Amino acid sequence: MSLLSVRDLTVKFSNRTGALTALNGISFDLARGERLGIVGESGAGKSITGFALMNLLSQPGFIDGGQILFEGEDVTQMSKKQVRDMRGNRMAMIFQDPMVTLNPVLTIGQQMVETLRAHRKLSFEEARQIALVKLKEVYIPSPVERFEQYPHELSGGMRQRIIIAMALLLDPKLIIADEPTTALDVTIQADIMELLLEMCQSNQVGLILITHDLGVVSQVTERTMVMYAGRIIENGPTRSIINDPQHPYTQGLISALPQQTQPGQRLKQIPGVMPTLSDMPSGCPFHPRCDHATETCKSQVPDISQSGESFVACHEVHRLQKELASEAAQ
């Protein structure tokens, strides 16, 4: 049985005229201990997916349909108590900004102990010892001293290590990391991602890494899911998607990476912008930005089909791959 199985998940946001669809029938699975990357531009639905999995959507957002089966239990049907027991305990989330996540008026130790005692029957000293062990695991120097400090007394990288330690406090089966290195400089980003990877591997924890950075995805994840306008448009092994992208959008993302351009040349970019929820195009949502779009693309939403090692939602993918193979053979 998969650790996580998502089926036809639809998320909407209410407005004055009805509801706008933010996630449109997405489906995927995550095995125990597997590391999955979710990539795409801003507005693709990546973070909404993470919030929906944790049942953290607040009004006007709501889950309109589908299933989120976590260890065989449907998260969408859980009571409030069941959801509270699941969050932090069996499924944890690392947010973008640690200063927003951490309570500024409580010490690091108070927050870690409070988290532990909310889910376990522990004395203060027992919780303290577990917290100190976790701080050591994420290579926090002088953990006893850090335990007594407030968030503002720590650097950005240190705070993010604290967040990872807190996510691991209760030995969850799954961690959802939403852009965990956005607010950090490049050298600290690499350290944090290396730490997160090490923690997941050593504890056999499943990881969903939400990011726009394909470089990070290539280093950390085993499988990658590319999202566009609330839909999954490509899903496959990370190495395959990086080295042999099938969907024109994925190809555009790879081509836009700085390392794909010669020094002194203008960076490549995908023309146009992500459509808004209130102005979603008919057919394939990517067709207004796609050089290969046909009349079919403009009128019909593509089904998922296999191409190479990936599963792709594109009407023209097989034709394009035949053309590429023909060009390579000449």
From TrEMBL:
Sorted alphabetically, the Gene Ontology BP terms of this entry are: peptide transport; transmembrane transport
Q: Which SUPFAM superfamilies does the record match to this protein?
A: P-loop containing nucleoside triphosphate hydrolases
GO CC, alphabetical = plasma membrane
All residue ranges annotated as the ABC transporter domain in the record: 6-254
User: In what way does this protein cross or attach to the membrane?
Assistant: Peripheral membrane protein
Read off the SMART domains from this record.
Answer: AAA (SM00382)
Where in or outside the cell?
Cell inner membrane
Superkingdom of the organism of origin: Bacteria
Q: Which Gene Ontology MF annotations are present?
A: ATP binding; ATP hydrolysis activity
Could you tell me which Pfam families the record lists for this protein?
A: ABC_tran, oligo_HPY
Q: Which InterPro entries match?
A: AAA+_ATPase, ABC_Ni/Peptide_Import, ABC_transporter-like_ATP-bd, ABC_transporter-like_CS, Oligopep_ABC_C, P-loop_NTPase
Which key words are in the record? ATP-binding, Cell membrane, Membrane, Nucleotide-binding, Transport
Question: Record keywords: Nucleotide-binding included?
Answer: yes
Q: Which NCBIfam families match?
A: oligo_HPY
UniProt family annotation: Belongs to the ABC transporter superfamily.
Q: What is this protein called?
A: Peptide/nickel transport system ATP-binding protein
Lineage, broadest ranks? Bacteria, Pseudomonadati, Pseudomonadota, Alphaproteobacteria, Rhodobacterales
